[in-house]
């Protein structure tokens, strides 16, 4: 089973200033429309950038609807031994629907 975090759970953890490592695996043009902060690493670039990530921090992987971030999560688990990963369920689209109605959607 894929470890997930709902948008509301992530908001609560961010509000509590929990040190989450946010990795957005969308493309730069998507990031420009809307983002939740963190670091932009497009899915295709993840193999080259994985070594730069902090394995000790809880890492939330983010994309538009949660599919690419799920792929990224499995890649980091299987190929790089990450154990502290969460997929943002529903991606930034769900964030806009469930947490912030003013958040841009596309």
From TrEMBL:
<protein>
    <submittedName>
        <fullName>Rhodanese</fullName>
    </submittedName>
</protein>
<feature type="domain" description="Rhodanese">
    <location>
        <begin position="16"/>
        <end position="104"/>
    </location>
</feature>
<dbReference type="InterPro" id="IPR036873">
    <property type="entry name" value="Rhodanese-like_dom_sf"/>
</dbReference>
<dbReference type="Pfam" id="PF00581">
    <property type="entry name" value="Rhodanese"/>
</dbReference>
<dbReference type="InterPro" id="IPR050229">
    <property type="entry name" value="GlpE_sulfurtransferase"/>
</dbReference>
<dbReference type="InterPro" id="IPR001763">
    <property type="entry name" value="Rhodanese-like_dom"/>
</dbReference>
């Amino acid at each position: 089973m894929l470890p997930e975090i709902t948008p509301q759970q992530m908001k609560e953890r961010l509000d509590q200033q929990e040190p989450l490592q946010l990795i957005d695996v969308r493309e730069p043009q998507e990031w420009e429309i809307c983002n939740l902060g963190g670091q932009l690493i497009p899915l295709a670039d993840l193999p080259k950038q994985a070594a730069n990530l902090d394995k000790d921090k809880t890492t939330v992987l983010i994309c538009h609807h949660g599919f690419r971030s799920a792929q990224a999560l499995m890649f980091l688990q299987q190929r790089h031994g990450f154990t502290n990963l969460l997929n943002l369920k529903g991606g930034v689209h769900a964030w806009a629907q469930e947490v912030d109605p003013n958040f841009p959607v596309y």
